[in-house]
Design brief:
The chain is mostly helical. It is 48% helix and 4% strand. The relative contact order is 0.07.
């Protein structure tokens, strides 16, 4: 007994008009453009990128006037002396670090970091249940523990006791 073949749904026989799909594309791009402008600001490079993509879509749909206007706005944002040159604040480094960031900063494990916090050796701040560290405080912690004098160590890395060094062979 043969099983009946499954019928796959066929696409609608009338394709959507290119004008309607173009309008939907423009609506979607305009919403995206507004979202980018809202999130990053009207003078950020991401907004300029979005404007350029919008201009390409407008040009492809034949609206060259609006495409040229969008390209001019993007160029004004990108130009160093343009009307809109504000950027997001540069983040040279974080102002505060969480526990994982501080552990990476100090090249320690989390357990060691928490032990130093509990013992009071490591300066920190609590915000609610979170622990935060300022990089400046961590730098001071490291600088305070730099050893200036060197001691001889045995094969296991332990400091040698006075008088236990081997005599030099003559």
């Amino acid at each position: 007994m043969a099983t009946p073949a499954r019928r796959t749904p066929t696409p609608s026989p009338i394709p959507p008009s290119s004008e309607a799909s173009g309008e939907r594309l423009l609506e979607t791009m305009e919403k995206s453009l507004e979202t980018v402008r809202h999130v990053f600001g009207g003078s950020h490079r991401y907004y300029a990128d979005a404007l350029e993509h919008y201009a390409k879509a407008l040009h492809a749909l034949g609206d060259t006037d609006r495409a040229a206007e969008a390209n001019l706005r993007a160029a004004a944002i990108r130009s160093p002396g343009g009307a809109a040159t504000a950027r997001l604040p540069s983040l040279d480094g974080p102002r505060v670090l969480d526990a994982q960031g501080a552990a990476r900063y100090l090249s320690l494990g989390l357990d060691t970091l928490y032990r130093l916090v509990r013992s009071g050796e490591l300066p920190h701040s609590r915000i609610g249940k979170s622990i935060r560290f300022r990089p400046e405080d961590l730098d001071e912690y490291i600088a305070a523990r730099v050893t200036r004098e060197w001691t001889r160590v045995d094969k296991r890395g332990r400091p040698r006791q006075n008088g236990t060094e081997k005599p030099a062979d003559n």
